[in-house]
Amino acid sequence: MTSPSLHPCFLGPYGENDTLLEKLVVEFLRDHVYWRRNFHPEDPPAIPTAAAGEPAFRDFEARMRRELHTLSAALKRSVPFHSPRYIGHMVSDLLLPGLAAQFLTLPYNPNNVSLDAAPVTIDLEIKAGLQLARMFGYVDDPTRPDCAFGHLTSGGTLANFQALRLALALKAFPVALRTAAPPGLALPEDDRAAFNTTPADAIALLTAWETWLATQSPADRRQWRARLTAQRLETLGLAEFLGRHPALGSPRVFAPVTAHYSWSKGMKLMGLGRAQLELVPETGMRLDAGALDERLHDCLRNHQPVLAVVGVMGSTEFGTVDPVHELVAARERWAPLGLGFAVHVDAAWGGYLATLFREPDGRLRPLADMREEFRDFPAPEVHAAVGALHRADSITVDPHKLGYLPYGAGAFLCRDQRAMALLAEDADYVFSADTGGDYFQRFRQLGRYIPEGSKSGAAAAAVYVTHRVLPLDHENFGALPRESILATEAFRTAAARFAARLEGRLHCRIPFEPDSNLICLALNPAGNRDVGRMNRFVRALHEGLSYDPHQPLQAREFFGSMTTLRPEILGDADTARVLASLALDPATLDAGGDDDDRLVILRHTLMNPFLLDSGNGISYLELYFDYLERRATALMAVPA
Ligand SMILES: *Cc1c(COP(=O)(O)O)cnc(C)c1O
C-alpha cells in the first residue's frame, strides 16, 4: 500500500490534489501582485485602466490566447510522466512544494548568478547545497573551514563537468605553486610529485599558501599572486601547461563501463580528450575494484597521471551502485606510492536514495534497521558504498531526477569548500584575508565559481523549499525512495510469477540484480537460440511501450524503455552467463546481422509513488505483467 504520507505530496495521477495546487498558485500570485502595488503605490498605473478595451489590446490578447491554446493542445501529446503507467525513463510526477515554489518565484525572476540579482534565492541555493551535503554525510556546518559546498546546475551533465574542472584545478595547482616557488612553504619535491598530490593535500597546500600570503605586505601579496597566476593551468591552457612540464603527461580518468555519456562529453569539452577516459570492467554491473587496481598499478609504473576515478551511484541503465568505499580506499592506498587522484561519485540518478540511509540527526542508519523495511535492500556493499560517500572528493546529484523536481535542477557538491577558490573566475584565491571567513558572503558571488552564468533562482527556491518540507532523511523524504524500492521488490516478485506462468514458452530473466529502482528484463521466446531474432522480438515489445506520435496516448497501456547489453561492456563472463540464462547460442552473437552485436532488453524505472495498490485495488505492476503476457503471446503467435 502506498504510504498515506505521500498523499499530499503530488498533484496526483488523476489530478487529485488540484484544489490544493490551484489555491497555492492563486494565493501566491495575488501575493506577488500586492508586492508590486506596495512598491511606490503613489505612482499612477502605467497601463491605463481602460487599456483592455483598446482594439490593439484585444487583438494582442486574441493572438496570445490562440497561441496558448495551440500550445496547450499540443502539450496534450506529452508523455504522461505523472502516471503509474509510465515506467520508462527517470522521471515521474513533481513534488507539490517544489512546483508551487517555482510558480511562486517565477514572477520575481531572480537570477542566481549573484547577490545583486537574487537577494533572496541565492542564499536558498547555498542552503540547498548544505542540505544535500548533509544527505551525503559531508560537513554541513558553514562555520567550519572544511565545510562542504554545493551549487545547482542545469543538470547532472554540467555537475560532472564541474567535477572534472575542480579535480583538474586541484591537480595542477601544486605544480604551479612549485614553479612560482614562494619561499618558506613546504612544496612537493618535483613536478610529478606535485601533479600526484591528492585533493585533500592540495587543499592543505592552498591553505598554507593563503596563510603565507596573508603575512606579506599588500604590494608583495599582489606580486606573488600574479606570479602564481601566470603559472596556473587555468592561465596557460592544458597544452602550454603540459608543454612546460614534460614529465607530467595527459591525465587519465577512470569510470565504470556503466558511466553516463556526459563523461565522454566532459572529456572532450575540457580538452582532456575522449581517449583519456578509460572504462573499468564490471562485475554484476558494478565497477570491479580489482580491475581498477590493476590499471592504477600500470599507471604508477608508466608514470601515467590519473585525474579522477569516478564511481556511479545508480547507473543510468541498470540502477547499480559502484563500491565507493573501495574507490576511496584505493585513493588512500595509492597516494603514498606516488599516484594521487580525486574520487568523484556520479549520483545524478541514485543520490536521493541516500535519504533512506540517513537518520534525522544526520548519522548513517545501521544496515540492520534498514533490512527490517525491505526484503533484501540494501545489499551490504551498497550500504558500505553509501557510508563512504562523505569521503568522496565531489558528488553529482540531480534534484530533477529522484528529487521529483522540475527540470533545470542538477547539483554539484564538493567535500571541502576551500577547494572552490581555485575555480574563482577572478583568481581571487584569498578568502581568509579580504573576502573574510563568511561562507555565505563568499559564495553569494556564485557566478564566479560555476560554469554557467545567469541561472534560475526559481529552481533554487524549489529545491530548498522541498528539502525543508521533506527533510533529507529516512523519516521524511525517505518515504519516496522507500516506496520505489518496495515497488522494485514487488516488480521482482511479479516478474518471477510472470516467468513461471510463461515457463516453456518464454525465457524471462533479470540480467542484473538492481541495487536500486531501475530494473531490466531480458525476454526470449523458448526454442529461439538466435540473438538477432530475440532482439527483433524485444524491439517489437518495446514498440508497444514507446511513444507513438500517430496514435492517441490512450492507445498505450504502458510506457517503458529499453536498453542494450553490449559484449564489450559486459565482458566475457557476464556475456556468457546472460546468453546461457536465455538459452541463446553464443555463435549467433555478432554473426553478421544488423541487430545481433548486442542484446536488446526492456528497462523500467520504478519511481512513480503510486505503482503499488494505493487502496484502490489496483497494482500497476500486476497490470503491467498482464499486458506483457498478452503482447508477448500475440507476438510469439506470429511466425518470425
Ligand atoms: C542522468 C544522468 C546524468 C546526466 O544528468 P542530466 O541531468 O541529464 O544532465 C549523469 N550521470 C548519471 C549517472 C545520470 O543518471
Can you walk me through this structure?
- This protein is an alpha/beta fold and 640 residues long.
- Among the domains are: 156-397, Aspartate Aminotransferase, domain 2, CATH 3.40.640; 479-636, Aspartate Aminotransferase, domain 1.
- The protein is 42% helix and 10% strand.
- The protein is built from 21 helices and 13 strands.
- The protein has helices at 18-37, 55-75, 96-105, 121-136, 156-180, 191-195, 199-214, 218-231, 233-236, 238-244, 262-269, 289-301, 324-334, 367-371, 380-387, 439-443, 457-469, 479-501, 531-543, 567-581, 620-637, and strands at 149-153, 252-256, 277-280, 282-283, 286-287, 306-312, 342-347, 394-397, 410-414, 506-509, 518-525, 561-565, 599-605.
- It has a 7-stranded mixed sheet with strand order 1-9-8-7-6-2-3, sandwiched between helices. A 4-stranded antiparallel sheet has the order 10-11-13-12. A two-stranded antiparallel ribbon has the order 4-5.
- Strand 10 (506-509) and strand 11 (518-525) form a beta hairpin.
- The two termini are 41 Å apart.
- The model is unreliable at 429-434 (pLDDT under 50).
- The structure holds pyridoxal-5'-phosphate.
- Residues 155-157, 160, 260, 262, 312, 316, 346, 348-349, 398, 410 line the site of pyridoxal-5'-phosphate.
- Pyridoxal-5'-phosphate (PLP) binds at residues 155-157, 160, 260, 262, 312, 316, 346, 348-349, 398, 410.
